[in-house]
UniProtKB/TrEMBL annotation:
<dbReference type="Pfam" id="PF03354">
    <property type="entry name" value="TerL_ATPase"/>
</dbReference>
<dbReference type="InterPro" id="IPR027417">
    <property type="entry name" value="P-loop_NTPase"/>
</dbReference>
<dbReference type="InterPro" id="IPR005021">
    <property type="entry name" value="Terminase_largesu-like"/>
</dbReference>
<dbReference type="GO" id="GO:0004519">
    <property type="term" value="F:endonuclease activity"/>
</dbReference>
<protein>
    <submittedName>
        <fullName>Terminase</fullName>
    </submittedName>
</protein>
<feature type="domain" description="Terminase large subunit-like endonuclease">
    <location>
        <begin position="269"/>
        <end position="563"/>
    </location>
</feature>
<dbReference type="Pfam" id="PF20441">
    <property type="entry name" value="TerL_nuclease"/>
</dbReference>
<dbReference type="InterPro" id="IPR046461">
    <property type="entry name" value="TerL_ATPase"/>
</dbReference>
<feature type="domain" description="Terminase large subunit-like ATPase">
    <location>
        <begin position="76"/>
        <end position="241"/>
    </location>
</feature>
<dbReference type="InterPro" id="IPR046462">
    <property type="entry name" value="TerL_nuclease"/>
</dbReference>
Length: 590
């Protein structure tokens, strides 16, 4: 038989998803294998649905009766990719991204029970890997029910409930359901793996190594496959979830040619996202292919209405989980008012060098934190000709934060990869002295690199003679000493009052963003920091605080507010002739 030729790119997926057509880009490579698998899959009973009478037999509805065609397309694609002559699987990695309440755990259980029944390898290990015990039970219970509901299956398959295992008594193969609550998954001998809720693994700092260990056995087994089934994250994608989702999108879009990988991603076409079509009940089906079966338009519409009353974070989480709208900024009710306009004011071409080239004056804001915080820096400039305020950010942290705040470790590594965050090394020279009796203090890496950035700004000649570097006065003595060594002292280095004293910057920067008077570098790190900022209102004041203590880092954003306070002073570069740009425009009123 000639080797089949196929592509897993689905270039017209946007048209297909709106037209309710299959997102599987090619027919099963081996139709006979696909039909065998569908016969098994469709016969499995769903025990959490009431029994029905068919002929003279009372039983639960089967997967064949309750599932939509998209499920059968996926099952056919997975099992129809195995060559019956060689046992080699030609497509070995799959992803289903789907909204919540579309039968995800039921589908997962059905696919893995089908794989256990059709498996030909003696003593094979099949596993459903879930991020938590609760998710693991969500997958195991329907699988267990499918076996116990069918008298014929109960003869061949033995449920070991206390171990969350199902064993095939003829082949010795075992289906295991594993809760990866710890940071490691030992073994790596499974030939078939289904990974539930990949988005939750994205929050685990060691998830990449853990999944590599769990999937290692597949490399030695030609029939092996991995299936990822997940909803969208309740936060901006991070870690292994972000990486895998980006790869799957590139395969689907034809950017990456990988015929061994297939993605079925129920998400919104760009134009529909821009038009906020996801708020229209007529289009709920786009990311809910099981609508009318496991979820209804009426329920989604009612829940959406409840969240729209309050807006904020609850609305974004609902949109992410039930309508597959990827979260960008988490818009809580108590958010900083500038958050609404932040994304629209991003200019990802803005670098430190281009900011200095475009500006007539530049200032620096710094906000330091503890060892489990970020050390934030912002260079802000006033654009020549337009007067717009330009913002470039960078941050530093020490490994302490990765161990003390494990919930955000994966995100921090993402920002490090982007080049916006430096995770410092703890290796520091013991001495800089000339002899044993003459030692010198070597400043930590974050201080050295922050000073290097400020020195670059100073060399541009754009720093003003007064109010050039604004610091949060807490815990910056080391930085003040280092700045003095490069010739920056009072009145160029100034303390910026915090708390309610930042009110003018909090309100003023939000207004600048709303009316396109400010531009920032568009980093993911800053979108996260801005989304963590919470407005706290007093009787006559506004303050910024963290929305979540410990994990909701805002230090670089606070550095931006410090820089904003300096721009409010209408500074003039030290190498200027002392004439304000606003005087040149005839805007100064005496």
């Amino acid at each position: 038989m000639a080797a089949p030729k196929w592509s897993t790119a689905c270039l017209d997926w946007q048209e297909r998803i709106v037209a309710r057509k299959s997102l599987v880009p090619c027919p099963p490579l081996f139709p006979g294998k696909a039909e065998d698998a569908l016969g098994v899959f469709k016969s499995l009973q769903v025990v959490d649905l009431p029994k029905v009478v068919v002929g003279e037999v009372e039983r639960h509805p089967t997967l064949g009766e309750v599932c939509d065609d998209f499920v059968f397309d996926l099952v056919a694609a997975i099992f129809g990719a195995e060559d019956p002559e060689t046992g080699k699987r030609l497509i070995s990695e799959f992803m289903l991204l789907i909204s919540k309440k579309n039968g995800k755990s039921m589908i997962a259980a059905g696919i893995m029970v089908t794989a256990l029944i059709l498996n030909w390898r003696p003593n094979a290990i099949l596993q459903i890997l879930a991020p938590t015990l609760e998710v693991a039970n969500n997958s195991f219970e329907p699988a267990m029910g499918m076996v116990r509901a069918d008298p014929e299956l109960s003869v061949v398959l033995k449920v070991i409930e206390h171990q969350r295992q199902i064993k095939h008594l003829d082949t010795g193969a075992v289906l295991k359901v594993i809760a990866a609550d710890s940071d490691t998954v030992a073994g790596g001998k499974a030939s078939i793996t289904l990974i539930e809720e990949l988005w939750l693994f994205g929050k685990k700092p060691k998830a990449a190594a853990m999944l590599r260990e769990a999937l290692g056995g597949g490399s030695a087994r030609p029939e092996a496959f991995t299936l990822y089934i997940t909803t969208h994250s309740d936060e901006p994608p991070s870690g292994v979830y972000k990486t895998k989702l980006a790869y799957m999108r590139d395969v689907r879009d034809g950017v990456i040619d990988d015929p061994k990988t297939m993605a079925m991603l129920y998400e919104w076409p760009v134009e529909m996202l821009d038009a906020e079509a996801y708020l229209d009940p007529a289009f709920f089906y786009v990311t809910n292919p099981h609508i009318g079966r496991s979820v209804t338009v009426e329920w989604l519409q009612a829940e959406l209405g409840k969240e729209q009353i309050g807006e904020g974070e609850g609305l974004q989480v609902f949109l992410a989980k039930h309508l597959n709208v990827e979260i960008g900024l988490r818009l809580r009710r108590d958010r900083w008012r500038g958050t609404d306009y932040w994304e629209a004011c991003a200019d990802k071409s803005l670098t430190l060098a281009s900011l200095l080239a475009r500006s007539e004056v530049a200032v620096v804001g710094v906000d330091g934190g503890g060892l489990d915080d970020l050390y934030g820096l912002c260079v802000a400039g006033r654009e020549r000709g337009t007067g717009r305020w330009l913002y470039w950010f960078k941050a530093w942290c020490w490994p302490d934060v990765l161990t003390r705040r494990k919930e955000i470790a994966a995100q921090l590594h993402d920002y490090e990869s982007d080049g916006d965050l430096v995770i410092c090394s703890e290796v520091v020279s013991e001495t800089l002295g000339l002899d044993a009796d003459d030692t010198a203090y070597e400043r930590p890496q974050d201080i050295r690199e922050i000073v290097a950035v400020i020195e670059e700004v100073k060399a541009s000649g754009l720093l003003p003679e007064r109010g050039a570097v604004g610091l949060d006065p807490q815990g910056v003595s080391d930085l003040v000493d280092a700045l003095a060594e490069i010739g920056l002292e009072d009145p160029q280095v100034v303390s910026v009052g915090q708390g309610f004293r930042l009110m003018s910057a909090i309100v003023g920067l939000a207004r600048k963003l709303k009316f396109n008077g400010a531009v920032h570098d568009g980093s993911r790190m800053m979108a996260w920091c801005v989304s963590n900022a919470k407005e706290e209102l007093g009787r006559q004041t506004v303050m910024i605080v963290k929305n979540t203590q410990g994990t909701g880092k805002i230090d670089p954003f606070m550095a931006g507010l410090n820089a904003t306070k300096l721009l409010e002073l209408n500074p003039v570069a030290a190498n200027d002739n002392g004439v304000s740009v606003y005087e040149d425009r005839g805007l100064v009123v005496f």
